[in-house]
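From the pipeline queue, job 12 of 40. The input is one protein chain; the requested action is below.

Action: predict structure.
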Amino acid sequence: RMKTAKGSTTGALIVILIVFLGGLSGCASLGGGQQTLSRDTEYRRILELQKHKATLAAAEESEQKIPDATAEGAERLGDQHMRQGNLSMAFLQYYKSLRLDPERGAVRHKVGVLLLSRGMTDEADKEFDEMLRHRDCHDLAYEGKGRVSLARNEPEKAVANFQKALEINKTLWQAKAYLGIIYDRQKRYDAAIREYEEAVELNPNTSILFNNLGLSYLHKGEYPNAVDAFIKALRHDPENSLIYNNLGLALFKTGRHQQSFEAFKKAGGEPAAYNNIGCLHMAEGEYDRARQAFAMAIEKRPSYYVKAHENMNRVTSAVQRAETDPTTVQAE
């Protein structure tokens, strides 16, 4: 099985980052959908709702203590807490800003996104609906409702909301990125590529856009374009192991095996790189090369690389099946 390194998170957008290799242990992809534990999910939602109510109470107390605060100042403090990763304090300040000026649609959008990040989709949706009742920021309101629909696994509603947002404001690069993600899931790779490319034009300094663009090219089989996109992604996030894994796969598909190995090596070290290269050779039916790569993985880290031993056994079994009946051997 293919071994990959753990990657770092990259920004708020990718809540839903599509990663081809990252998160999988082994050569074979995971089959079936993720099982959801409805009771656990509902329990977590109740806990978050309780925290939310406590936060509102704290905001009211804070407002009484600082009666001369302005809506603008509270929003700036909220933004500062967001940059520091203090989401609870950010929410307090945004809520205070809205108490002072309910018409601040951009602040309400930030509150909705925070609620959505905690899995509180219904509460977030109410905030976005409230935005539509005011004069401005309808573009952000529809963009927010698109995120809610996506979180609820309602892709058609999500697309409609994102498109409404873009009809109002064509510069919403995140809406385009989310459309790209939906189209990728639907295997509409040309449409996804178009959305990502337009998003990149609006925001050329975000690694995740180039990474997702590269993944769409990868799925479509346009491997040189995928390589180019992943290299651009790494310029903005040079330590991201998931992007290096994606680059390694794209390079292998273009026949640049040594460069592929180097990319995998940067993602997770030599043993992981040899194991990944072995898996890719095995998928191509190149069993001798696969066996050599797995042997190197075992040599580099025999105590750690149990998976390489398993993959070596799979190669042996595949060769034996091919010798018995060549028509039965299929790449996994």
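Job complete. The first helix runs from residue 38 to 65.
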